[in-house]
Amino acid sequence: YWMKAISPALADSWYPGNDALEPGYTASLPHPANAVFKPPIYNLEPPAPLVATGVGQQRWKIHCLGELQVYRQDGSPVRWNAANGATLKTKTLFAYLLQCGRKGATAEELADLLWPEANSTEQGLNRLYHTVHGLRMALSPELQSSRDSRFVLNDDQHYFLALPADVWIDIPVFEQLCYKAERLLREGDDA
Q1: DSSP helix/strand/coil, 50
Q2: What's the pTM?
Q3: What is the per-residue pLDDT for 9?
C-alpha cells in the first residue's frame, strides 16, 4: 500500500493485479521466483554536483536519508543555525540545491519553493537572500563575508551548490544497494 501511495507505477511493477491498492489487504507478497518484474521505471540518479574550487582536500559526508546531516573532514557537523537563521529553511535550501546539481535553481524558483505564502516576490526574495547568507555561513563559518563562499554560488540570480571533490553522499550508496537487491531478486538469489 505505501509503495502504491508513493509511486503507483513502481508498485504495479512489483505487485500483480491490485494487491497494493488497499491498506490491510490480505494477499501474500509474491515469492521472488514467481514475481514478474518489469524494468525499473525510476531514475534515481541525481544530477552531478559542481565541484568547489580552492577548498583544499576536504572530504564531506552528507547524510540525506533520515535527518539531513553534513560532516566536515574533521568529523564536525555543520551547524545549520550558524547565522541565527531559520534552520529548516537553510537545510531545505541545501537539500534542494544538492538535488539540482549543476543545473542549480533560479532565485524566484527557490523563493517560491521556500515561501509560497509570501505576499510578494520581493518579500520571498528578501527571505531567500537571508537564508542563502545563513547557508553560506553554516558551510563556511570562518568567512568574513558570506559572498566569499566557495560552496553556495550565484550567477545572475541563479544559485548553485558546489561541493568538495571527494564528497560522500548516502543516496548514491543506497541506490547502488537497491539496484543490487533488484538484480538479485531477478536472478532468484536469496543472498
Answers
A1: strand
A2: 0.69
A3: 55
